[in-house]
Design goal:
Oligomer: single chain
Distance between the termini: 65 Å
Shape: globular
Largest sheet: none
Structural class: mainly alpha
Helix content: over 70%
Order of helices and strands: HHHHHHHHHHHHHHHHHHHHHHH
């Protein structure tokens, strides 16, 4: 099948979803009010609460939630065939991610920008708030650890990407000063910044940077050195006001993603590449997991992601200028995430060459996960070669896209982790951490850093603990977080006598798939004697069971309250 057909089918489906379903959500379910005073105006402080133009905010939100996850997940999931992966990306984006991301912004904005964990205590129960704090802490730790390893591996394998990834930082800082200090438009400077980034790509390829000398001097491996440097940068970046680095860099990255998607899709059209992977892979290697239910925790951010609710309620809602713009930012951002997942699927099913090349890259599930990022980078390089761009330069371009996105996600993730740690310390009565921003940020960095440095995996997506095992834990925890966010949205809607089915249907589906996968993992880890993963998986399973009980109790309570109110009104 020509790969371009998949692009047309997916983008048409996304257009229809935004045109009709998101409008239904905005008008009938969330009932957006243009006169509502958002937290960005009510609590404006110039640091976290900052009214932001919707296009700039979409850039921040989109690039913060994107990262490497919507690339790695689908790049692994095509092991089961492109049809199951793409079907879940389309349906999950339109009917699950759109509802989840959009609703998280709205509910948070309606509650003075409080994060979804705090809101669970108000909407569901105090126990649910504790549950959410535990899940969020675990998820953010995994997100930051996973993306730290991803960036380190890409820097090691693509040293030509170092200079472009570094140069975007001073460019973003200049744009931030230009826009917020001088009050100038951000559009032209950001376009110039994007051009400078692209100019830096061939420069970086000509002058690759290595940290081997530093690693040898301090007696560490190259991988460990990169991880430490990345987390050191993240500590600094997460302490800066959002307008200084995070927002302008996100805007550049947002434009970069649009360019990346355009050139990938154009390369597919010009080259008229054919999908060489099977629609459904019937040659599943012995020992590899079945797509049902693992597909739905592997794709993760390519369809629906609980991490999005943390960004939506943690930073995006605090920058929302007008409430109706939540549709453009939340639902639009989910569609952008789905488009990136589509690009990853194409790169790994049509960009690897002949069917034999695909069969070699996806011989078994271990090979699929081990080569996920490399398959995307190489496939993208092939698409760009269709446009006359050298494949090596195109691969560096793809690596820069993933690295800059992952860096943005880590910046946001550490910032959010700082908020969560402060809430946990207040809940536990640890006064020594109250208001200690530097100390909280240090803790938010050290915990995932320690996890990222656990030995055992030197290849992104490999079988070692450093990535492959982290990804499995990330997927299940991520979907569990999405389920809890959807339960908050559903109870919030039901309490206002609005139809909660838009949130309840994906909620039930996610909890079923996540719980099933957790049980299968428990059996597998026990059989293999993998006690560390067994304990972690068991802890997540307990949280999942706890979530089901709390959500059911909350829905039942609100339903009875509504019934009593209706009876009182009739009297």
């Amino acid at each position: 099948m020509p790969a371009f057909f998949l692009i047309v089918i997916t983008l048409v489906a996304f257009y229809l979803g935004y045109r009709f379903y998101s409008r239904y959500l905005a008008e009938k379910i969330y009932r957006l009010d243009p006169n509502f005073v958002t937290p960005a105006h009510e609590l404006r402080d110039g640091v976290d609460f900052v009214p932001t133009h919707k296009h700039v905010l979409l850039g921040h939100h989109f690039t913060s939630v994107a990262g490497a996850a919507p690339i790695v997940g689908p790049a692994i999931a095509v092991y089961w065939g492109w049809l199951p992966a793409l079907t879940w990306v389309i349906l999950g984006t339109i009917f699950a991610a759109g509802v989840h991301d959009f609703g998280s912004i709205v509910v948070s904005a309606r509650n003075r920008g409080q994060n979804i964990g705090t809101l669970s205590g108000k909407v569901i129960s105090a126990r649910a708030s504790t549950l959410f704090l535990l899940i969020i802490f675990f998820l953010l730790t995994l997100v930051n650890a996973v993306f730290g390893v991803v960036m380190a591996i890409l820097f090691m394998k693509n040293p030509g990407a170092v200079i472009p990834a570094l140069i975007v930082i001073p460019i973003a800082i200049f744009i931030g000063q230009w826009a917020y200090r001088l009050g100038r438009s951000i559009i032209i400077p950001s376009i110039i910044g994007l051009l400078l980034l692209y100019i830096a790509i061939p420069i970086g390829q000509a002058y690759p940077l290595y940290v081997d000398g530093i690693a040898d001097a301090v007696g560490l491996s190259v991988r460990t050195t990169w991880i430490i440097l990345i987390f050191a940068y993240t500590w600094i970046a997460s302490r800066l006001p959002v307008w200084m680095l995070l927002q302008p860099r996100d805007y550049i990255n947002g434009q970069q993603l649009l360019v990346a998607l355009f050139v990938i899709f154009l390369g597919v059209l010009v080259g008229w590449d054919t999908v060489t992977a099977p629609a459904v892979n019937h040659n599943i290697a012995e020992g590899s997991p079945n797509w049902f239910p693992y597909l739905f925790i592997t794709v993760a951010c390519g369809a629906i992601s609980g991490f999005h609710s943390l960004v939506a309620s943690g930073t995006t809602s605090k920058q929302l200028d007008k409430e109706p713009e939540a549709r453009f930012v939340g639902y639009g951002g989910a569609l952008g995430e789905g488009a990136l997942a589509l690009a990853a699927i194409l790169a790994c099913t049509a960009g690897l060459g002949a069917a034999g090349d695909w069969n070699s890259a996806y011989a078994d599930f271990g090979a699929a996960s081990g080569g996920a990022l490399g398959n995307f980078v190489n496939g993208t390089g092939h698409f760009l070669s269709n446009l006359g761009i050298p494949a090596a330069l195109g691969s560096t371009f793809a690596a820069v896209v993933v690295i800059t996105f992952a860096g943005t996600t880590m910046d946001t993730g550490v910032r959010l982790q700082r908020y969560i740690l402060e809430e946990i310390s207040e809940l536990a009565g640890i006064k020594a951490l109250s208001g200690r921003v530097n100390l909280l940020t240090t803790l938010a960095v050290l915990v995932p850093l320690a996890l990222a440095l656990v030995p055992g995996g030197d290849s992104a997506g490999g079988k070692g603990f450093a990535f492959g095992r982290l990804w499995t834990l990330f997927g299940t925890t991520n979907q569990l977080t999405a389920g809890l966010a959807l339960s908050v949205i559903g109870v919030w809607l039901l309490a206002r006598n609005r139809n909660p089915l838009a949130a309840l249907i994906p909620l039930v589906f996610l909890l079923f798939m996540t719980t099933w996968a957790l049980i299968l993992n428990l059996e597998d880890f026990f059989a293999k004697g993998d006690w560390l993963l067994l304990v972690m998986d068991a802890a997540i399973f307990v949280l999942a069971a706890w979530l089901v009980v709390e959500a059911f109790t909350a829905f039942n309570r609100v339903r009875h309250d509504n019934a009593r109110q209706a009876q009182t009104a009739q009297r």
